[in-house]
Amino acid sequence: MGTVVDAPVVVAEEVTENMLGGKKVTVVFVLGGPGSGKGTQCANIVEHFGFTHLSAGDLLRAEIKSGSENGTMIENMIKEGKIVPSEVTIKLLQDAMIKSENDKFLIDGFPRNEENRAAFENVTISFSLFQTKISPAFVLFFDCSEEEMERRLLGRNQGRVDDNIETIKKRFKTFVESSLPVIEHYSSKDKVKKIDAAKPILEVFEDVKAIFAPYVPKAE
Ligand SMILES: Nc1ncnc2c1ncn2[C@@H]1O[C@H](COP(=O)(O)OP(=O)(O)OP(=O)(O)O)[C@@H](O)[C@H]1O
Ligand SMILES: O=c1ccn([C@@H]2O[C@H](COP(=O)(O)O)[C@@H](O)[C@H]2O)c(=O)[nH]1
């Protein structure tokens, strides 16, 4: 039998807030039901306010395409409207944030349940003798009726495996049971900015613009 050696204890000199890959990051969570218009509005925010858009769903779909060992599991979860284990999604998000040269991120469609939220906020990222925790500046919540969201998803026509009525119903159920509690959590901390997402795209963006006004990029 070999000798058992304890893992070295690394004592962090400092625990910082929202430091990642040597930069101070601003994170906005973009939440709302399936088809509420999160991706559409994130594209507008990127263009006007210089954020980088990280869609958790897009990262998971890219992971399937890449032939990763998690691909089949992720695809099955998406087809069932279920939530992929936190560690998989958080690793994809963190890697994308570290790789990016930007320091302002829209995290779209995550956290999807309380476990996602706690895992993301409690994860301690260590580099050198520093440790960091990341929490959102605020949560942008797109509020829309299921009737309208269903109409939009059935008309989206992007060939997604989950834009069929059977999976859409499951996604709505997951949203109500698992994702709304996340929004309630941040609401209790006064961090939620709610948008009426049933309005036409340009009108929704007018409301979004008012919220992002403090983030206008500096002129070069
Ligand atoms: N305000 C709006 N009014 C009408 N149609 C909209 C509006 N916003 C988005 N759409 C359309 O609805 C569909 C879904 O929008 P989008 O993909 O932005 O939603 P999402 O919330 O990101 O969805 P998912 O969570 O499924 O990825 C798209 O076809 C989009 O063009
Ligand atoms: O954090 C996440 C984000 C997404 N999923 C799974 O992907 C699909 C599609 O997500 P969209 O945001 O609509 O692109 C979603 O229904 C989940 O199955 C996830 O598990 N975790």
TrEMBL record:
Binding-site residues for a ribonucleoside 5'-phosphate, renumbered to this chain: R61, K82, I83, V84, G109, F110, P111, R112, R160, R171
Subcellular location(s) of the protein: Cytoplasm; Nucleus
Keywords: ATP-binding, Cytoplasm, Kinase, Nucleotide-binding, Nucleus, Pyrimidine biosynthesis, Transferase
A GO cellular component entry from the record: cytoplasm
This protein's record includes keyword Transferase: yes
Cofactor annotation comment: Binds 1 Mg(2+) ion per monomer.
GO biological process: nucleoside monophosphate metabolic process; pyrimidine nucleotide biosynthetic process
Catalyzed reactions per annotation: dCMP + ATP = dCDP + ADP; UMP + ATP = UDP + ADP; CMP + ATP = CDP + ADP
Span of the signal peptide: none
Annotated CMP binding sites: N116
Enzyme class: transferase
Binding positions for ATP per the UniProt entry: G35, S36, G37, K38, G39, T40, R156, K199
GO molecular-function terms, A-Z: ATP binding; kinase activity
Cofactors: Mg(2+)
Enzyme Commission numbers on file: 2.7.4.14
Function: Catalyzes the phosphorylation of pyrimidine nucleoside monophosphates at the expense of ATP. Plays an important role in de novo pyrimidine nucleotide biosynthesis. Has preference for UMP and CMP as phosphate acceptors.
Family statement: Belongs to the adenylate kinase family. UMP-CMP kinase subfamily.
Domain remark text: Consists of three domains, a large central CORE domain and two small peripheral domains, NMPbind and LID, which undergo movements during catalysis. The LID domain closes over the site of phosphoryl transfer upon ATP binding. Assembling and dissambling the active center during each catalytic cycle provides an effective means to prevent ATP hydrolysis.
Oligomeric form and interacting partners: Monomer.
Protein name: UMP-CMP kinase
Organism: Urochloa decumbens
